[in-house]
UniProtKB/TrEMBL annotation:
The keyword Magnesium applies. InterPro entries: AP_endonuc_1 (IPR004808), Endo/exonu/phosph_ase_sf (IPR036691). Probably binds two magnesium or manganese ions per subunit. GO terms for cellular component: nucleus. It comes from Desmophyllum pertusum. Residues 180-239 have a biased composition (Basic and acidic residues). One of its GO terms (molecular function) is double-stranded DNA 3'-5' DNA exonuclease activity. This is DNA-(Apurinic or apyrimidinic site) lyase 2. Its cofactor is Mg(2+); Mn(2+). It is an enzyme of class 4 (lyase). Mg(2+) binds at D138, N140. Residues 176-250 are annotated as: Disordered. One of its GO terms (biological process) is base-excision repair.
């Protein structure tokens, strides 16, 4: 359970959804400044947890049974808040913690994909109802290979069903109002490549400078030794006496 200091923050309204099937397992929270207090808030993507709908626009849910809707909203994975904009319209923030599923676990993979389907149905219904929609949080699917720390081979990577869903969900002009990811990936990658090359060039230059300094120091020391040796030899030749050093003969 959250302590009072964490749950109640001065100057903010807080909205929570906790897992109803396993404690400490999952959940989301949205903190809204008092200046942007929501005009409505709901827990879950369906109407199951909202006896008196305030945001509405749930979609038909024709492909879901009541039991499935209850199961999809039972893990505390979605909070929706609606905020009034200055132009009189409203924006609905869908804050998510989407399910994670190992590909070997078919039951959880199916659960994850059904959650995605319900999310898309709700988002599209809200857009059709005249709202702006912002989907944020942990989608639990990396979109492109560059987003993944250890991607599979490209063919296997792109075959992931969650990734295929995300690709069609992020179609400009439908649900997502952001630019297609591909439009920014190449410039971003080019910038990373340039930075990497610059850093490597700097390392190489520093390495060369250090080596040059070592060589100069080595040559200087050798020249000093040679000069000292020649000076001692010249002194010995002039006097005919063995050269003495502190503590004995050289």
């Amino acid at each position: 359970m959250l302590d009072e200091v964490t749950a109640i923050v001065d100057g903010y309204n807080a909205y929570f959804s906790f897992s109803k099937v396993k404690t400490g397992y999952s959940g989301v929270a949205t903190f809204c400044r008092d200046a942007v207090t929501p005009i409505a808030a709901e827990e879950g993507l369906s109407a199951v947890l909202t006896p008196q709908p305030s945001i509405g626009s749930y979609g038909g849910n024709a492909d879901f049974t009541p039991e499935e809707l209850e199961a999809l909203d039972a893990e505390g994975r979605a909070i929706l808040t609606e905020h009034r904009l200055t132009d009189g319209k409203s924006v609905v923030i869908i804050n998510l913690y989407c399910p994670r599923a190992d590909k070997e676990n078919k039951e959880r993979v199916d659960y994850k994909l059904r959650f995605y389907k319900l999310l898309q149905e709700r988002a599209e219904a809200l857009v059709e109802g005249g709202r702006h929609v912002v989907v944020l949080g942990d989608i639990n699917t990396s979109h492109k290979m560059i987003d993944h720390c250890e991607p599979d081979k490209e063919e296997l990577f792109n075959a992931n069903p969650g990734r295929q869903w995300l690709n069609q969900f992020l179609v400009p002009g439908e649900v997502s109002s952001t630019k297609p990811v591909d439009e920014t990936r190449e410039p971003l990658q080019a910038t990373r490549d340039e930075t990497r090359e610059l850093l490597q060039a700097t390392r190489d230059e520093t390495r060369e400078q250090r080596q040059a300094t070592r060589d100069e120091t080595r040559e200087s020391r050798q020249a000093t030794r040679d000069e000292t040796r020649e000076s001692r030899h010249a002194t010995h030749s002039e006097t005919g006496e063995p050269l003495q050093a502190q503590g004995g003969y050289l």
